[in-house]
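Listing S7. Sequence submitted for prediction.
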Amino acid sequence: TSGTTGKPKGAVGTHRNACTVAVCAQFSPLRNLLRRGEPVPEPNPDAPQKGGLLAVPFFHVTGCMSILNGTLATGGKIVLLYRWDTLRAMELIQAERCTGAGGVPTIAWQILEHPQRGEFDLSSLENMNYGGAPASPELVRRIKEVFPHAAPGIGWGMTETSATFTSHSAEEYVHRPDSAGPALPICEMKIDDGFGRALPPGEVGELLVRGANVVHSYWNKPEATAKTFVDGWLHTGD
């Protein structure tokens, strides 16, 4: 990672970090079900296998922690795309009946706006999730317009948080399309004034986070570790 101090450095993750992200990723869609008054689906071994198109690299926390681990934890399949190509992506979604796709907002836009999109059966899509860059509210509207049965979703995170730290989807996201969502369960956030004091809502300061998905330290970088991880809080630099 190079997000907090400029030059690339190793972030020491743990099995606890990876498991936390895989488990917490299920809470946002489940929360939406409960808010709609719908029952939580019972596991059905005879149902078609769910799976997502992985269009980002495994060596990135999104590809590894969020998509790979999250999909395997729920018994899903992963459809690999070596290099991003919108036409090939739509071919794979149709052939493999992918239930999820996304990665970054640009990927979602390119699928939505591709002139040959109508030639493919993409009705299997149940969600289109992304992060890593700002997404306009217009993207949410377009996803619901083109894929009415697919839930748009967004998340915010960094390598130091083992990928996703905030997330929301479906109705939550549609009603607040300018937001990256609330913190995952057992995760905390606060805005700091630069002097160790928490600021109230609406004020501008640095985002500090802590939780079971935050990495242990920077590899062989004690000074960078001491600067970034202070009193149990990760100073994100955001």
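Caption to Listing S7: primary sequence and predicted structure tokens for the chain studied. The chain has eight helices and twelve strands. Residues 61-73 form the longest helix (13 residues).
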